[in-house]
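ok here's the first one, seq then struct tokens
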Amino acid sequence: MRSAQILQTTQTDQAFLAKITADADREIAAILPMLASREGTAARAAMPHRSAMGHLLGLVTVFTSPESGFHGSPELADPMIGCLERLEQLQGPDGLFGGDNLSSPPDSAFTINDACLAVQLLQVHGQAQGRLPGPVPGGGSAAVLQEIEARLWRIIAKITPALVEGGVHTPNHRWELCAALAQIHRLDPRPEIDLRIDEWLAEGIDQLPDGMYSERSPLYASAVTNPSLLIIADASGRPELLDHLRKNLEAFLPWFNPDGTVESVFSRRQDQWLDFGGAGFLLPYRRMALQDGRSDFAAAASWLGGFPLLEPAKLLAQTRILPGLAGVLPHGQEEVQQEEQQQLRMPAELRPERATLESCRTYRFRQGETAVTVFGGGDHSPSGVASGLSNNPTFLRYRHGNSVLSDVRLARNFFSLGPFRSMETLAEGEHIRLRELVEASFYLPLPAERRRADGIYEQSHEGRFSAAMDFAGRPTVQHRLGTEVTVAAKGHQADVDITFDGADTSFALELTFRPGGVLKGVEEVSEGVYQLVGSMGRYSVGSDTIEFGPGSAADPDTPPVYNPGENYTYLRGTNATEGIKVYITGRTRGTRRLTLRGTDATAGAAATAP
């Protein structure tokens, strides 16, 4: 395996370096008024520790970068010291930082990783300037930078014992904490630090067979786990960890979208509800493309580099510490734009005809500008809806060019148990079958042997609600509703067959479109909400159109509404989507088909406007 040292001799991509420098300057220019002005004093005083350190890292980066417009600028001195003072103010007696999680080692580790990066950068800058150890006489920029470095060292030294001894909350926290410890160990080696890293790593990296980490989250893969594994591998001499990084990057290659987002419907974290931008994957793809000479990673890095950068000042700092990160990508990858749409063209490596994530039970089919994504991998837990679980009931997404059907969901009026979520998912070629069986009971009188004279029974939960009724001891009258959804993707068309078995009740199929287009063939229910009562509807963004239907007649007994389920409504919450909503309603009898078809807006018969 090649080591990271090969990056030291890579030829520099001057265009990429110029872009991240310009973007870093814009980032600092945007925050400087808040940090430097009298009006910004209160805002600066309220900065969380991660923001204070992030701003300090950015300021130090452009201040020490010869290509930056802020290089050596005296106007950065006070803001840098102000951020440093805020950081010192927030550090507790035990060395840890507060926030949402009080005295949190992993949350503090995020800040310390940036602090160690800043120290490394200052050391690199000092070596480039030929600075000798010891105090710098007089004032000037050298003295300011040396003061910042010394005070950061004190912050790091104060927190080190707490990071060695501290614990975590989530899977990715382990690797962020190990990354901070590895960076501290590289700067100031201590045997107890390396021993603690070994103890965490001995648990094994939580990587599923297809490359996803256990949280299945692009947010935490790109922002925490992958960067942390890179740091640990480099700082502590554990290059074998990069194999996990490679496998995760391979897994995500087919799951990017033309707008620069990456699929997240299968996530177990908060990004399952977001259009999550993929910019955080740029650096690891670029790093491994350069280190391994991989053309697929190079294609991904080149394409992602055409979108707005995430934390460009931090990216600039990383390229200054390891200049090879700004190297010329292998195989001459270039950013190619479509003249008509002015949109970065996705490279072939990112748009295979079919992709599968078995651990997430998620499947994607592509044909030209059409992409069909089927999701059947939600978590089913006695705890119900909870952080750390895959709770998103969206089972289908359909894109045709710039026209996006972001969410297809199925709500049924069945004891407020919530929308359809697959319990069993089967892939059969181009057919994906999703199945769910929901049950609810009415409870009969207790048998004589279970009765209590005082009428007080144990509080218990029966699946929908809790009560002191000894549910487990009662005979029941049970109601069931089985639902099977089969998605067949072929070319630019997807046929969705929905089959019901059991209770006769109403359903509402909810289609949520990303705003920005024009709907035709539907009837308005309320602002932003429509119902398809005719044969086919159309949603167009420019020349890209999604045809959908058929609809069904309006009926007061089958209302066009979405019910998130009692887990949400009891707490006055919701998991509702955002966008333009179209409902198709009916009864849970037999089979209903929904057809989705991507077409040119000028093709087909004209439809009437809502």
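and now the second one, same deal
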Amino acid sequence: MKNYYLLLCLFAFEVGMAQNKFPTKFEETRGRETVTYEEGIAYMQTLAKRFKTIQLQEIGTTDIGKPLHLAIFSLDRDFNPKSIKAKGRNVFMINNAIHPGEPDGVDASMMLFRNMATDKKLQAILKNTVVIMIPFFNVGGTMNRNSYSRANQNGPTAYGFRGNARNLNLNRDFMKLDSRNTHTFVDIFQTWNPDLYIENHVSNGADYQHVLTHLATQSDKLGGELGEYLRENLIPNLKLKMKQRKWDIIPYVNVYGNRTPNDNGIPQFFDSPRYSSGYTTLFHSLGFINETHMLKPFKQRVEATYDFMMAMLEHMEGQGKKIQQMRKITAEEVTKQEKFTIGWKMDRSQFDEITFKGYTPKMIDSKITGKKRLFYDRSQPVTKKIKYYNVFKPTLTVQKPKAYIISKAWYNVIDLLKKNGVKIQQLTKDQTIAIDAYYITDYKSYTRPFEGHYVHYGVKVKTVPQEVKFYKGDYVVFVNQPSNRYIIEALEPQATDSFFSWNFFDTILQQKEGYSSYVFEDIAEKLLKENPDLRKRFEAKKQQDINFRKSARQQLNFIYQNSPYYEKEHNRYPVFRYVKNQSLPVK
């Protein structure tokens, strides 16, 4: 026993010496400061030079023109993703500084990589897991350093800015891919196909005692065996492991303004694919967003972030093979799946009860405005059971087509599909094909720009069977792939973050041709004489709609839009659904 304690002391001394030899800026400043971009990359370069188990790669580019760095820890010094996957290794991906004003993950990950390289005890749980880490996703925002943009945050002394070099919020960019940063991220994600993904953040919103909350992939959206595993196994296990480390974690407190979780409970955040954890869902990766609490000291936040990543590594050591197997089965099932849900709504009739440690909220007089303001009284902590609404029900489900057919004119859409690992074929000859065409019958748009777009929502469509002339080289996307969920979410116009929602197809919403009323009057009269059915519908509408009856323009428009003169392309969604069982001439 004496020899055991001696060895343990020697081991702890060696680890401490390694940490003293490679201290981070966070440690040197006793938890007051975070690294600059240059300091962080230099530190990771030092580790990569010193330890053969660490490699630092430069991949792609970013909006500010600098590469995106990827740090890799591999105990057997294999840094090839194909080889690693062939060996059955788990892949754990960490993403930091997507919001550089929230740098906790940067400093925690630097310490984690150093310790993985030096700590034999830690290496014992890394034999089957390779860790990949983006030190700074938002490079431009990290370099835009200040001390004021996070007005509600308790440290560090200086930090980066939320917007990137093009002032984009990169945590809304995972479907539309406006930034070079996210293009490079997708290259990394699709190359490595991580089993588990963590993105490190700092919260905004309500005040409470918890240092760290988590936003996991929504289990109903993830669905199947993976969704059940996430809800029933992974999250409870992480909670237990964090409790053992003296952290009491709960789901992300998604409450803002004067609403408080004490009385109203908390809803689960709906992570549509614009967000990283919603994007990872489409490829059967288990995604987590860490949210440390903004008002807790920076040192405490970084330590909690470090421990959460450690808890995840421990979980993967015991459960990684099972997660891989479930992901494989899910990919196979999705390949054959016939119906896909693209609309969800929270079910307020179902909830869990969780223990929430908050502070007593009060409405007191503001010394600034003289009005009532919200105040969390930290002298009166409160522990109580609150409702956690974490069940979502489908509101819109679509039957998948056999394939989508897309003209080569929409090359930007094709490029994004290819980037996300979608297999695409091309027609080998010109051909008229019977398809189902969507027509956009209604939609709403934001009145103010959101991340550079006037996003569409509330989209309604009608389906019209047609025969359409396609040309050699036009693209065919068969919906028989592990990436089916991504294909559906991107190409079905009613999906929350579809390419249509993000304005990729807005040109079809504008009519290109028209008519002069004085000319079309004579044509319209002839059309009504020659088409009894059109006349019948025209007269019926006049009887039923007083505004239509009073408007000459509306009446002419009705006839025009129901005539051969009206362009078929107006409001016709240019991604066509092929639903036949016949083969197409493709290669």
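notes on #2: Residues 10-15 have pLDDT under 50 and may be disordered. The chain has three domains: 2-338, 401-511+569-578, 517-561.
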